[in-house]
Amino acid sequence: MSDLSHVDESGAVHMVDVGGKPLQRRRAVARGEVRMAPETAAQLRALPKGDALTTAQLAGIMAAKRTSELIPLCHPLPLSHVDVTLEVRDDRVEIVGVAETTAQTGVEMEALTAVAVAALTVYDMAKAIDKTMTLSEITLVEKTKQ
User: Would you state the CATH architecture of domain 24-145?
Assistant: First the structure.
């Protein structure tokens, strides 16, 4: 019925069985951005280190570690590394999330979740001063296995 990996022939959803796959080193990189007024970006840039951007970075890391609790059919993975970086530009905050593991399935959902939650955290922290912010272009940039 479907070529979707989480839907069987009858249309029922299921968790993909990865039990027969070998353990492999896997890495995924995702990116996204929060677009905002230049004045908002300037205020974020002027904050002391450890405020809004560090909060968003930590939220992204924590979210990557809990992806299987947020996305129902994701496998819980033993993450060996998660990195979230945020860079304030003239009219946006650019976010990059990296997730790594040695497992039987990839970590793209963890990298994407890290970016999405970091972006939501930036939004939450700046929404009082900018009602026009948008989250955009959250996308998988790279997925590798060795």
Answer: 2-Layer Sandwich (3.30)
